[in-house]
Each structure stands twice: as structure tokens, then as C-alpha cells.
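Problem: given the chain below (130 residues), write out its structure.
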Amino acid sequence: MTKEEILRNYSPLALAYLGDGVYELYVRAYVLGQGNCQSQKLHKKAQAFVSCGAQERFLERLMPLLAADEQEVVRRGRNAKTHSKPRSAAYGTYHAATGFEALWGYLYLAEETQRLEELFAVIAESGAEA
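Solution.
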């Protein structure tokens, strides 16, 4: 499927839905790669990467590195009208995280595995506490 077909056929919220799972998989693999430990410790380490606040910070770090089409996906995701209220984040943070997740879904559907790995390397380099 071409990138244009992806944008035409999937809403930004559908891309974010998929992207949430794709990003979670990258995070879990990264955290596990840091060393084997109890599952609750792995979960706590992963949470530092997947919270809305963390995703917003990572998005700010990635934005200058994104191509025009990638920035457009983020913008569409950020501006999407959601029907749920964020539980533990401000609306702006929640919408930024939705844009971040839409990007991951978009790149996954476009089979841009190398690009996903490049972006995650930037995230891992900046760390969960960035």
C-alpha cells in the first residue's frame, strides 16, 4: 500500500490505534534488551517511554527530523477529534501523543521498518527521562 493510499484509507485515529501497538512493541523489545528482570520492573521502565508526556517529549525531539509527509501525519493525528478524555494528561499532551502514535501506525503500514528503527534509535538515545 502506498503512503497516499494509507492516508486516504485510514483516519488518523485508526493510524494512532495501530501505532500505539507498534510503538509498544519497540519499547518492550528495547526494555527487555536492557537486561532481564522481573516483569513489574520491565513494565515500569516501559511506562517511562509510553506515557503521554514521554510521547510528547519524544515527538518534540523527532519533529525536526521528520519528512513533510511524516509531519503531516503527526499534524492530522494531533488535530483529530477524539471521543475519549485523557485520564492523566492535559488535552494538548494527549493530542500530541495521538499524533506521535499516528506516525508509528503510518510508517508501519507503509512498511518503513528502517525508518521506524531510525526514529526509535533517536528516542532510545534521548532516554526515558529526557
